[in-house]
Amino acid sequence: MRLLNVVGARPQFVKLAPVCRAIEAYNGRNPATPVDNVILHTGQHYDPGLSDVFFEELEIPRPNVALGVGSGSHGQQTARMLDGIEQLLLKDKLDAVVVYGDTNSTIAAALAAVKLHIPVVHVEAGLRSFNRRMPEEINRIATDHVSDLLLAPTPTAVRNLEAERLSSRTKFTGDVMLDAIHFNREIAKRRSSIMDRFELSGVDYAVATVHRAENTDGPRLQQVMDALARVASDGLTIVLPLHPRTSNKLKTDLPQWRPPQNLRIVEPLGYLDMLRLVDGAKLVLTDSGGLQKEAFFLGKPCVTLRDETEWVETVEGGGNIVVGVDVAAILNAVGHWRDKIATGSADFSSGIRSGFGDGAAADHTIKAIVEFLQTSRDGAATLNG
What's the CATH architecture for 2-175+357-384? Predict the structure, then answer.
């Protein structure tokens, strides 16, 4: 079986790593019928700090194909991906295309494959923020409805797919990002030197990230940055690895804005450094979906700088407050967490188990894909016979 795994952005690299390990383990158990793992990197994240370093740190096999599409509008970027992926699919025989999450890489690969009648598997299917102004929401919905196998990370995702009459294509696997945390947490403690490099040992600090278009395009950026500055000025150091999109917007839209001393703006970080940084933090402020989960898995309280979240399990599990970008609301949420969880660490294990599975999602993913393809082949053989 030849699988094409399509990735292009940081969260997708993190999800791909445990799937690659699960493929290796499966092949070790089934040497006569191995899975051939073909990796395509679209180049949606083209900065080395957001791309190359993740392949190295997570020990992901180097991509068989790198499209290098780079930046551009949604239409330009998706069109270049569609063209490149379609060319590969036309010349290389593949049994299924596996897509991850909700990026332009996800929808481009799904559309290219389904139009060539190649089965599409969607890892992290069924997420809904119910905010159709988010490009990611459109990508999720469209990908789910053209995919042949929907691998849902949470019970809520399963219910969302059932509501859209997609239950016959749906399997609950749990979240592969939980697998990644389990595998890499201790490795990060051993290998990352970020606590020493940033002189954070013994320092109470928070980690912040801001990158979504809804927060960087328009007036919300001013609100977010002012809120972070207020939190830092009130005595809590903030480490802000700055996404290239946000860095560019600060220069063009807020050229007069300057961070206070306790707001440390740093370059994008590799996965292990970021994991170690969050693991040592008192709390997290973010508009990232992946970081909301990583904070929850690591027992770190989170303040989500959005008006809604697709990861409702982190809220229901008591580890996340969704506040939008109102400065007062952000300050109140930070104060709430500092009072409630003074140590900066909590036990969210019950919510993790009920919401995100058993930590073996990658194994469940490969099993589901193999069973789906075998069933499809058996059905085709019966029809042809």
Answer: 3-Layer(aba) Sandwich (3.40)
